[in-house]
Amino acid sequence: MSGRVLILSWEYPPVIEGGLARHVCKLAEELVAQGMAVDVLTREGDDSPDMEGATAYGQDGLGQGGGMSSAEVRRGVNVHRVREPSWPRDLDRFLAWVAQMNDDMLAAGTALAEERSYDLIHGHDWLVARACAALADRLAIPYLTTIHATEHGRHQGWVDKAPQSNIHSIERWMAGRADSVICCSHYMRGHVADIFDIDESRITVIPNGIDPRDLRPVDDLNALRLKFATPEQKLVLLVGRLVYEKGFQLALDALPEVIEKVGDVRFLVAGSGTHEQELKAQAQRLGLTDHGVFLGWIGDDALHSLYRIADLCVVPSIYEPFGLVALEAMASGCPCIVADTGGLREVVPAGERVGLRFNGGDAEHLGVMIERLLVDAQLRDRLVTEASEHVLSFDWSDVALRTAAVYEELASRRARQRA
Question: Are the beta carbons of 333 and 356 closer than 8 angstroms?
Fold first, then answer.
């Protein structure tokens, strides 16, 4: 397909809230590299992005949000930003904020469509679903949604009360309204089909990609490691949003016995989130305070360096649609232990070839696997060697080709309907 697509996302670099921004950015850039015209409609952060060389729009009403504030070309992608106020951390107020953002994106998208013709709308998650569907209706073009995660999964099915029920209902409506759905794993395809009661044939599985060139460390690695561990100590890394479903509480529960059996073991927790204070209190109760550090949120450059200095990375998620942290760690030469759950099964296949898996939710079994990997240098080396080849199959070029094939199928279907 060589037409023009409009992609909507609530985050896009340099506005980064999580992995979604990086996914949309890499996909958009690769689609452009393959000959497609791509416009991204997103929001501008609290701090204006670097607009050097960018085309500025009118500045009316920027303080209140709602106006198209800027546009720029980033590696061939036309990025259009709508100024929005800071999003509230209170979830009830956040839902109202999302509704206003969708109104603003709908107005901005309508204005863009007066200047150029789009073949398809591609939205990412529920946060932009209302604007995507309305634009698709106005322009009489297909609407494709990528569902990266669900509220049902994040809360282990507890979505019967507001505000979780509100988000769940939007996601259900979105999955039914969209002309087609993309999910990042076979696990997610079954999960989405089941909880939203849609036919699996409407869902295409396209995994996330990874570009090892993006994972270059920037620090003096020897000096960085000495900040956290001596050469004789083992260093265990935990990375991600500090929320319950990421399962970091399981890793903390496992560590005291590991330390008792292995000896000098240190841990690092890189990330922030709503579960952070509870995890710190847990570490204190378990006597782990002197054995590790909570680093809080760190930038990508620092994170890429941490993968290089750790002896292993643990991904203990209770709910995990894909498992990008495991993929990044393996691409950086850091052996992995992951929960035997969700999309992690597809990132780290069974067989102990590229990484180890533990029984999801079982802290005792996780401890056994951590101990095994820390004391067996030969196993660690073998996993690193095999994983370095395995990660090459998660290629952004292939992700873009498969996504473009979905675009083409939707465009052809719409053309047949019109005929």
Answer: no
Nearest to 7 by CA among 138, 126, 124: 124
Cis peptide before 14 (omega within 30 of 0): yes
Range of the domain at 116: 4-209+395-418
Phi, psi (rounded to 5 degrees) for 322:
-135, -75
The angle formed by the CA atoms of residues 296, 299 and 301, to the nearest 5 degrees, is: 130
- 186 shares its domain with 292: no
Residue 2 has pLDDT above 90, yes or no: no
Report which of 11, 410, 375, 419 is spatially closest to residue 181, judged by C-alpha positions: 410
Q: Indicate whether 239 and 138 sit together in one domain.
A: no
Which pLDDT band, with edges at 50, 70 and 90, does 48 fall under? very low
What is the CATH number for 261? 3.40.50.2000
SS3 of 256-293: HHHHHHHCCEEEEEECCCCCHHHHHHHHHHCCCHHHEE
